[in-house]
Specification:
single chain; alpha/beta; Serine Threonine Protein Phosphatase 5, Tetratricopeptide repeat; Rossmann fold; six-stranded parallel sheet; 23 helices
């Protein structure tokens, strides 16, 4: 009976007198009722009011772990973490606050303030964006985001090579967090002026613009993103690596070997950061599929895509089952490939097996009636076409190019037309597994997180004329390098 009375009396007494006596009463109660979540929470509030934040955190955690957790304890815990100068711990409970409908605009501001007090503007910005997403009516957060963006680095993106196809999601992300300008064409003077304006210059593709930009006097942090083909041409020899702070590659270790072919000491010249491509899963909705007869090929018909092997595979498959069809989405970019395509259809008797659909603007829609995606490339960096098809639930059948085993599961790969046929006709087919593979290893969110970490490192270590160019020695960039 005594413990029952304490369980009823202590919370009331704690509420009416937040002092040592009330704390003692609550602690006595907890000895009698160790699973009383409300009492742990009440005691935590007292400790919080006394400025004993670390102890308060312990009590709030015990409240949350109790059999009956008072919902308010989550919010109390987050405020205690903020008071203790641990905003990153507060962020770990963000989703719980949302689920329990405890998050409000004031708390979002407080979390952001906690990060700003520690000069962590990148995390403050993420807190504000997550709060804005969770609270559609909290329009005042927009002004806070705009004000914070004006305090952050200015980023210039220089788009050379094959254009912005692989950059659009990164641009959208960056524009929400930084002041951004984009250079696609113009004079060398305009390029130089934009580099002087920026705190960080990002060169998409290690090609012409990167060569021009790195030849200029250094005025900012400089990042080059190399995809794949640039490493197999002399471009690495034309870059002034002394002015480059980070070289971003997209995944395939054989691309690094190609870089070392041109520059054997490339790792001594520049920090190499591996950030694989990421798939925007919302843009590629999942559909559960079953084995069928329709095979997709996505990409321009050119030598590096190895259409010779592709046609041999289809000729072998036709002998097993002539009902299979190959659908090609992509342009024919080389005249020699156009002639080879026309000639081979006739000589191999594939006119009724291969369907050329040309370039497709809406790949998810085009894939709707396909069950397989074949790739016969002789080399790839981090092939988005394969990953996007897998995200929709399509089974990948991938020629074992150099480095493929580092990017994909072995049972997705083949080496001969006969093995290709086995992969097609085997009963194993699991759409959910293909989707899960992309969600686990290649989500856009993971790619953007890594890129934001890179930007944040340069935000904390901006370039000045007195700054060492050996970025990895002082910025923590070694944590990201390969």
């Amino acid at each position: 009976m005594k413990s029952d009375n304490l369980c009823q009396q202590a919370p009331h007494q704690a509420n009416t007198g937040l002092d040592q006596a009330a704390l003692t009463q609550a602690q006595t109660l907890l000895k009698e009722c160790p699973n009383n979540g409300a009492a742990w929470d009440e005691a935590g509030e007292i400790l919080y009011a006394q400025g004993r934040f670390d102890e308060a955190i312990h009590y709030f955690r015990r409240a949350i772990d109790s059999e009956v957790c008072p919902v308010r304890a989550y919010r109390h815990l987050v405020r205690a973490y903020l008071a203790a100068g641990q905003p990153w711990q507060a962020m770990r409970w963000f989703e719980t606050l949302c689920l329990e409908e405890l998050l409000d605009e004031t708390l979002v501001h407080e979390i952001a303030d906690g990060f700003i007090a520690q000069n962590d503007l990148a995390s403050a910005m993420e807190a504000l964006h997550r709060g804005r997403h969770a609270l559609p009516d909290a329009v005042k957060l927009d002004a806070r985001i705009t004000a914070l963006r004006s305090r952050r680095p200015k980023i210039a993106f220089f788009i050379g090579g094959d254009g912005a196809n692989f950059l659009n999601d990164i641009l959208d992300f960056a524009c929400q967090r930084y002041e951004v300008r984009v250079f696609e064409s113009g004079t060398e003077k305009q390029l130089a002026d934009l580099m002087r304006w920026s705190d960080i210059s990002w060169f998409e593709w290690c090609t012409n613009l990167a060569q021009i930009g790195t030849a200029l006097p250094k005025v900012c942090r400089t990042i080059i993103r190399l995809h794949r083909y640039e490493a197999y041409e002399p471009w690495p020899t034309q870059i002034n690596w002394k002015t480059v702070d980070a070289l971003v590659t997209v995944g395939n270790p054989w691309v690094h070997k190609a870089l070392e072919h041109w520059r054997p000491d490339i790792r001594k010249r520049v920090s190499i950061v591996n950030i694989p491509n990421g798939v925007n899963l919302e843009a590629y909705p999942y559909t559960s599929r079953r084995p069928g007869k329709n095979i997709a090929f996505i990409g321009a018909l050119r030598m590096v895509k190895n259409p010779m092997l592709l046609f041999q595979c289809m000729a072998a498959l036709k002998k097993i089952d002539p009902q299979y069809r190959l659908f090609i989405a992509g342009r024919v970019k080389e005249l020699v490939m156009q002639h080879y395509y026309e000639h081979t259809l006739s000589t191999m008797g594939l006119q009724d097996v291969i369907v050329y659909d040309g370039f497709q603007d809406d790949i998810p829609r085009w894939l709707a009636d396909k069950q397989y995606l074949v790739s016969t490339s002789v080399i790839e960096g981090c092939p988005m076409g394969i990953l996007e098809a897998m995200a929709t639930g399509v089974k990948p059948i991938i020629a074992h190019f150099p480095g493929a085993e580092a990017l994909f599961d072995r049972d997705y790969l083949f080496t001969t037309p006969e093995e290709f046929c086995r992969r097609i006709v085997e009963p194993q087919y699991d759409s959910q597994r293909y989707r899960d593979f992309v969600e686990r290893r290649y989500p856009l969110s993971a790619q953007l997180l890594r890129i934001n970490e890179l930007f944040a490192m340069f935000e904390k270590n901006p370039w000045t004329e007195k700054t060492s160019q050996q970025t990895a020695e002082f910025s923590g960039l070694t944590a990201l390098t390969v």
